[in-house]
TrEMBL record:
Residues 1-52 are annotated as: Disordered. InterPro entries: Uncharacterised_BSP. Residues 1-24 have a biased composition (Low complexity). Pfam families: BSP. It comes from Hibiscus sabdariffa. Residues 38-51 have a biased composition (Polar residues). It comes from the Eukaryota. The lineage of its organism: Eukaryota, Viridiplantae, Streptophyta, Embryophyta, Tracheophyta. This is Uncharacterized protein.
């Protein structure tokens, strides 16, 4: 049990490191990336987004700290409860790529997308991790609104591949997308 908790805590720390660039525990910042836009000024989810419509955010600070709840955002800060990250009690740990992918799915939904990320549908395997898995999770979330939140909730008690069938009506291999 300890190794599962430790590995998930390390995965969360690694995800924070990929965002903040440090393990010091002190808040650090990263630069926001503009949302993907078509020439018509719409994002991939068809919301009109012009530079004049967006809040000018120069930096976002990520805190991993003890507190109540799971996480919250206020002003230009994201606060994640370290106790929540460390209290995972699942019997079978989720694939590492899925943990990384969920973290990057959050970045994707917040429009903090580095220019080097793959385009939707690219990648070798759904659980390849990072941007590839984030894009796959976005696809699944488009198939069923709230899919990632529900999958995350199910994974609190362990991971089972049939979760995809439970949530999407098809197994992960049937949910493939892309090229």
């Amino acid at each position: 049990m300890q190794s599962t908790t430790q590995s998930l805590t390390e995965a969360a720390t690694a995800a924070a490191v990929s965002v903040s660039g440090t393990r010091s525990g002190r808040p650090t910042a990263f630069e926001p990336c503009p949302p993907p836009q078509s020439s018509s000024g719409t994002t991939s989810d068809n919301k009109t987004t012009y530079p004049s419509d967006r809040k000018n955010v120069q930096k976002v600070t990520l805190f991993i700290e003890n507190g109540d709840g799971v996480a919250f955002a206020v002003n230009n800060e994201i606060h994640v409860n370290a106790n929540y990250l460390g209290n995972y009690t699942g019997d079978a740990p989720p694939p590492g790529g899925l943990i990384e992918g969920i973290a990057d799915f959050v970045r994707l939904k917040a429009n903090f997308i580095p220019s080097h990320w793959v385009k939707p549908g690219q990648g070798d395997r759904w659980d390849q991790g990072y941007d590839v898995t984030a894009r796959f999770l976005e696809y699944c979330d488009d198939l069923r609104n709230g899919f990632v939140a529900e999958l995350n909730k199910k994974m609190r008690s362990g991971y089972n591949a049939p979760y995809f069938v439970d949530l999407l009506g098809k197994n992960v291999d049937q949910a493939k997308y892309g090229n």
